[in-house]
Amino acid sequence: MLKNLFKKQRNLSIIAPVNGDLLPIEAIPDPVFSDKLLGNGVAIDPTDGNIYSPVDGEVILIPQTKHAIGLRAKDNTEILIHIGLDTVSLNGEGFKPMVKVGDKVSAGQKLVEFQLDHIRTHAKSAITPIIITNDAEGNREYTFTDHKIAVAKETVIFTVSS
Question: How many CA atoms lie within 13 A of 123 on its CB side?
C-alpha cells in the first residue's frame, strides 16, 4: 500500500507515426481493434506512405509480411503500428521496412515506407491502428488528444500513464 502511495507516475507520450486524420479506436472498421482485443490506442487514416517511430525504443516485431511494426519504449511499453487493415494478405507487397528487429530507434526516425495507393486499392482500408499491446490488466491510464489531424513526428496523439 505505501509502496504505491509513493510510486512516481510515469507518462509516455506517443507521437503520431504518420500524417493523416486521427480516429478513435472505436471507429476502426475491424472489431479486433475497435473492441480493443489487442489493446487500447487510436488510429490514423494516412495521407502519405511513411511511418516514423512514435517513441525512443527498440524494434521488437516486423512480420514477414512487413505490414506492421512492434516497438518497445524505454519504459517497456509495447506499441504495435498496424499499417492498414487486412494488409497481411498483401504478403509484403507495397511495404519497405527501413529498420530490423533489434534496432534501437529514436522518436521521429523513419521505420517503414509503404505504397499508400497500393494499400487503398488492394486492402480493406489504409487506416493504421497504433495500439499499446502490453496492458492486458488495464493498469495504465490513457489521455487522448483532441486533435483531428495528426502531423507525423509532431502531434502527441495520446499519453500513457503507469
Answer: 28
Q: pTM to 2 decimals?
A: 0.94
Catalytic residue among 67, 82, 118, 122: 82
Question: Does residue 147 carry a catalytic annotation?
Answer: no
Helical (H) or strand (E) element with 17: none
What is the fold of 10-161?
Glucose Permease (Domain IIA) (2.70.70)
- The residue ranges of DSSP E strands in 4-99, in sequence order, are 11-15, 20-24, 40-46, 50-52, 57-61, 68-73, 78-82, 95-97
pLDDT per position as a tens digit, 109-129: 999 999 999 999 999 999 999
Bridging pattern class, strands 20-24 and 110-114: unpaired
